[in-house]
C-alpha cells in the first residue's frame, strides 16, 4: 500500500500543482460544494410549486423559460450534488487508506458515517420533487425499500398506487424533508469537524472559482433535464439513473429490498466498528509537566485536534496550565514544538518541556540530534529533520547528513534550530516530511513555516539561522528529490567552505535556491 | 478570475482532470439508463390490504375473571390478538409469478396484512389467477380470483385484494 501510494504521489506531483490537487482538499471541497447546492437550491425554491400539477411544470419553467439562468442554476444544483458524492467517497477512501480513524480520530470517523446517509437522503429527496418518471421510479422503489421494515404498518407504496392517491400535501412534505435533511447534514458536518482545530472548510479561492466555472460550463454543455411527467397510472419503461445517488436502486429491483438493507447495514456497521477493531500501537500521547508549564497557551493555540485546554495552574498563583484531553490527543507532538520552556538556551540540563510526548520527548530528540551531528564530517554537516508520515528518510544518512525523524515536523521547537546553528553544531538544516498541502497531522508544516517566518510564537530568533534552514515539503515518493536537495546543499557547503578562504558574498541559502532554480528551468 | 501560473504540462494535466471530472459528473448522473419494461410488456400491480383472520376463537369471560378486572376493562367477550399470516399466490398465463406469506403487522401480529408488488406481464390478453389463504390452520385456499385481462402497454393494471374481495382497476 505504501509503495503504491509513493508511486502515485510521485506521478501526481509531476503533473499537478500541489495546491490544486483535489485530493488534498476533499473535505473543504465538499463543504464548498454543499454551499453551491444550498445557494442554487434557494433560487430553485423561489420558483418551485409544491403541488402535483405545479411541481413538474415549475421545474420545466425554471429549465426552459429563464434565458439559461434557471437551467444553469438547476445544473449547478444537480452537478454540485453529484460532485459531492465523488468528493465524499474519495474522502472516505483516503482517510481509510491513511488510517485516519484510529485512536483519537475515531470521533471524526464515526460522526462522518451518518453524514453519508444524510447526503444520500438529501439528494434522493431532491429527485422526488421534480415529479417526473425518474421521481416516480424513485418514489415507488424507496417505498418498497422502507415497506420491508417491521415498523411499517401500512405500505408506503399504497400512497403511490395511482394518480388519485397523491395529493398536494405530499409535495409540502417532500419540500420540508428536502430542506430539513440538508440542514441536518450541515449540522452533522460541523459536528464532524468539531474536534479539529482550524478546519479548512473552504478550498483556496482560485481552485474554488475554477471548480464553479467548470460546473457552470457543464450545466451549459449537458443541461440538467427532466424525464417525462410522472404518471402513476402508467408503467415506466426505462429510467435515467443518477449512478452517484441511485446506485442501490437497481439492486433493489434485482435482489429485493431485504438483501439491500442487509448490505447497507453491514457496510454501515463495518465503518462504525472500524475504529474499535484497529488500534495504533505506536500512537504517542502528550503530557503536561506543571513544573515547567508557564501557562502561555501556545500549545493550546496550535493543537490541531482540540486536545488541549487551559485551566488555572495547580500551584502557581495567577498562572495557567495546559491540560491534555487524552482521548482527543493523536500524539502529533505539535504542542511540544510550541512549548517555549524547552529552549536549550537557558540551561541544557533544564531544557524540559512544559508539554511533551510521553515516550518521545523533545529533550531526547535534541540529545539524539547533537550526538548524530557530532559524528559528521566537519564543515559539511547537514541535519535533516523529517516526519514519520512523509518522505522516506531511510537512505539519507551519510558522513555529511544526520537524520532525525519526528512524529510531525511541527514537533520541532524553533529554539532547537537556533541552538544547533548558533553553536555551530550544524552547518545547514533541512526540514522535510509531508507535502505542503497534505500534512498528515494537518497543521504541522503550516505552523512550522509561521514559526520560521516569525509570524507565530515560539519563533526563530536569529536571522542568520533562518538562512541556514532549507525546507522541502515533498511527501512520500519524493525520495529522489530529497536526496538531490541534500547533495545540492552539500555541494553548496563545500563551495562555501572553499570560498571562505577567498572571498565570496553568497550565502548558503542563496546558492541552494539558485541551484534549485536552475534545476527547475532544466529539469 | 485569477489565471494561475502553471507550466504547459501542468495546464494540460489540469484541463484533462477538470474535463474528466465534469464528464464523469455530467454523464453518470443520467447514463446509462436502466430498462424497467421490455417492449411488449406492461405492468401489473398486485396490492393486498386485509384485516386478517384471528388465530384463536373468541370466548366468554367467566364471572370470577371479570371480577378480577378493573370495572372499566370488564367485557364479556375476549378475543386473542394474533392473526394468521396470509398466503398469496399469483399465476399469469399459468406461470407462478408471485408467492409469498404475508405476516400481520404489529409487535403482537395483530395489525393489518398488506403487500405491494409490481410485475412485468405481456401486453394483450392474459389469464390471471390470484389465490389467497387467510388462515394458516387450513389446507385449502380461502379466496380465489381468476379472469382474462386485456392489458395495454400504456396503462398499469392493479389487482387488489381487500376484506371486500377482489377488484381490478386500470383496464
User: Quick one: biggest sheet of chain A?
Assistant: 4 strands, parallel
Largest interface: A-B, 51 and 47 residues
How much is the average pLDDT of chain A?
A: 90
Unreliable spans of chain A are none
Number of beta strands of chain A: 9
General shape of chain A: elongated
Tell me the fraction of residues in β-strands of chain A, as a range: 5-15%
Please mark out the parts of chain B with pLDDT under 50 across 5 or more consecutive residues, or reply none.
none
- Biggest sheet of chain B, open or closed, and with what strands and sense? 4 strands, mixed
Structural class, from secondary structure content of chain A? alpha/beta
Helix and strand composition category of chain B: alpha+beta
Global Rg of chain B: 29 Å
Q: Treating each run of at least 4 consecutive H or I residues as one helix, how many helices of chain B?
A: 2
Strand order in the largest sheet of chain A: 7-6-8-9
Seen as an oligomer or otherwise, the chain set is: heterodimer
Head-to-tail CA distance between termini of chain B: 60 Å
N- to C-terminal distance of chain A: 29 Å
User: How many distinct beta strands of chain B?
Assistant: 11
Explained architecture:
- The complex is a heterodimer of chains A (523) and B (171).
- With 523 residues, chain A is an alpha/beta fold.
- Helix content of chain A is 52%, strand content 7%.
- Chain A contains 18 helices and 9 strands.
- Chain A has a 4-stranded parallel β-sheet with strand order 7-6-8-9, sandwiched between helices. In chain A, strands 2-5 form a two-stranded antiparallel ribbon.
- In chain A, helix 3 (52-64) packs across helix 4 (69-97) and helix 5 packs antiparallel against helix 7.
- Chain A is elongated and about 95 Å long.
- Chain A starts with a helix and ends with a helix.
- The model of chain A has no long low-confidence stretch (mean pLDDT 90).
- With 171 residues, chain B is an alpha+beta fold.
- In chain B, strands 7-2-10-11 form a 4-stranded mixed β-sheet, with no helix packed on it. Chain B has a 4-stranded antiparallel β-sheet with strand order 6-5-8-9, with no helix packed on it.
- In chain B, strand 5 and strand 6 (95-102) form a beta hairpin.
- Chain B starts with 7 loop residues before the first helix and ends with a strand.
Amino acid at each position: 500500500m505504501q509503495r503504491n501510494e509513493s508511486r502515485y504521489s510521485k506521478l501526481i506531483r509531476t503533473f499537478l500543482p500541489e495546491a490544486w490537487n483535489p485530493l488534498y482538499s476533499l473535505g473543504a471541497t465538499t463543504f464548498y460544494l454543499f454551499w453551491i447546492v444550498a445557494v442554487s437550491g434557494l433560487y430553485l425554491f423561489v420558483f418551485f410549486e409544491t403541488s402535483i400539477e405545479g411541481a413538474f411544470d415549475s421545474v420545466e419553467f425554471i429549465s426552459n423559460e429563464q434565458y439559461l439562468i434557471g437551467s444553469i442554476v438547476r445544473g449547478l444544483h444537480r452537478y454540485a450534488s453529484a460532485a459531492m458524492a465523488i468528493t465524499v467517497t474519495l474522502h472516505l477512501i483516503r482517510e481509510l487508506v491513511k488510517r485516519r480513524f484510529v485512536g483519537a480520530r475515531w470521533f471524526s470517523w464515526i460522526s462522518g458515517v451518518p453524514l453519508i446517509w444524510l447526503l444520500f437522503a438529501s439528494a434522493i429527496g431532491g429527485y422526488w420533487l421534480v415529479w417526473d418518471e425518474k421521481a416516480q421510479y424513485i418514489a415507488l422503489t424507496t417505498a418498497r425499500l422502507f415497506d420491508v421494515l417491521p415498523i411499517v404498518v401500512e405500505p408506503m407504496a399504497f400512497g403511490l398506487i395511482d394518480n388519485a392517491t397523491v395529493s398536494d400535501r405530499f409535495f409540502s412534505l417532500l419540500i420540508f424533508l428536502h430542506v430539513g435533511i440538508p440542514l441536518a447534514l450541515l449540522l452533522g458536518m460541523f459536528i464532524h469537524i468539531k474536534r479539529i482545530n482550524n478546519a479548512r472548510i473552504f478550498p483556496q479561492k482560485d481552485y474554488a472559482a475554477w471548480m464553479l466555472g467548470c460546473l457552470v460550463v457543464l450545466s451549459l454543455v449537458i443541461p440538467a433535464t427532466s424525464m417525462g411527467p410522472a404518471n402513476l397510472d402508467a408503467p415506466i419503461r426505462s429510467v435515467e439513473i443518477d449512478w452517484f445517488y441511485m446506485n442501490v436502486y437497481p439492486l433493489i429491483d434485482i435482489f429485493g429490498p431485504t438483501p439491500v438493507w442487509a448490505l447497507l447495514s453491514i457496510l454501515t456497521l463495518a465503518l462504525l466498528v472500524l475504529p474499535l477493531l484497529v488500534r495504533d500501537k505506536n500512537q504517542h500521547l502528550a503530557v503536561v509537566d506543571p513544573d515547567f508549564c508557564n501557562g502561555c497557551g501556545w500549545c493550546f493555540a496550535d493543537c490541531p485536534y482540540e486536545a488541549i485546554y487551559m485551566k488555572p495552574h495547580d500551584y502557581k498563583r495567577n498562572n495557567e496550565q495546559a491540560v491534555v484531553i487524552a482521548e482527543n490527543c493523536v500524539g502529533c507532538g505539535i504542542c511540544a514544538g510550541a512549548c517555549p520552556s524547552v529552549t536549550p538556551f537557558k540551561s541544557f540540563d533544564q531544557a524540559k518541556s512544559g508539554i511533551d510526548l510521553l515516550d518521545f520527548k523533545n529533550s531526547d530528540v535534541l540529545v539524539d540530534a547533537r550526538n548524530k551531528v557530532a559524528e559528521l564530517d566537519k564543515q559539511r554537516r547537514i541535519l535533516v529533520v523529517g516526519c514519520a508520515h512523509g518522505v522516506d528518510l531511510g537512505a539519507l544518512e551519510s558522513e555529511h547528513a544526520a537524520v532525525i525523524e519526528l512524529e510531525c515536523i511541527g514537533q520541532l521547537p524553533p529554539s532547537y534550530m537556533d541552538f544547533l546553528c548558533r553553536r555551530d553544531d550544524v552547518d545547514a538544516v533541512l526540514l522535510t516530511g509531508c507535502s505542503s498541502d497534505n500534512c498528515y497531522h494537518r497543521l504541522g508544516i503550516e505552523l512550522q513555516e509561521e514559526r520560521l517566518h516569525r509570524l507565530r510564537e515560539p519563533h526563530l530568533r536569529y536571522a542568520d539561522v533562518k538562512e541556514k534552514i532549507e525546507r522541502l515539503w515533498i511527501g512520500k515518493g519524493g525520495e529522489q528529490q530529497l536526496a538531490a536537495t541534500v547533495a545540492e546543499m552539500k555541494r553548496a557547503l563545500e563551495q562555501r567552505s572553499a570560498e571562505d578562504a577567498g572571498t565570496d558574498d553568497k550565502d548558503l541559502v542563496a546558492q541552494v535556491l539558485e541551484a534549485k532554480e536552475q534545476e527547475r528551468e532544466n529539469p | 478570475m485569477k489565471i494561475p501560473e502553471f507550466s504547459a504540462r501542468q495546464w494540460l494535466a489540469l484541463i484533462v482532470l477538470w474535463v474528466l471530472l465534469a464528464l464523469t459528473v455530467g454523464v453518470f448522473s443520467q447514463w446509462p439508463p436502466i430498462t424497467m419494461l421490455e417492449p411488449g410488456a406492461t405492468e401489473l400491480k398486485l396490492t393486498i390490504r386485509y384485516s386478517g383472520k384471528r388465530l384463536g376463537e373468541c370466548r366468554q369471560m367467566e364471572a370470577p375473571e371479570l371480577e378480577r378486572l378493573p370495572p372499566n376493562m370488564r367485557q364479556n367477550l375476549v378475543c386473542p390478538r394474533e392473526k394468521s399470516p396470509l398466503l398469496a399466490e399469483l399465476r399469469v398465463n399459468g406461470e407462478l409469478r408471485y408467492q409469498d406469506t404475508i405476516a400481520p403487522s404489529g409487535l403482537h401480529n395483530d395489525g393489518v396484512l398488506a403487500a405491494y408488488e409490481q410485475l412485468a406481464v405481456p401486453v394483450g390478453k392474459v389469464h390471471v389467477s390470484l389465490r389467497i389463504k387467510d388462515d394458516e390452520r387450513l389446507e385449502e385456499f380461502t379466496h380465489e380470483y381468476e379472469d382474462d385481462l386485456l392489458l395495454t402497454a400504456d396503462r398499469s393494471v392493479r389487482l387488489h385484494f381487500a376484506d371486500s374481495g377482489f377488484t381490478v382497476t386500470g383496464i
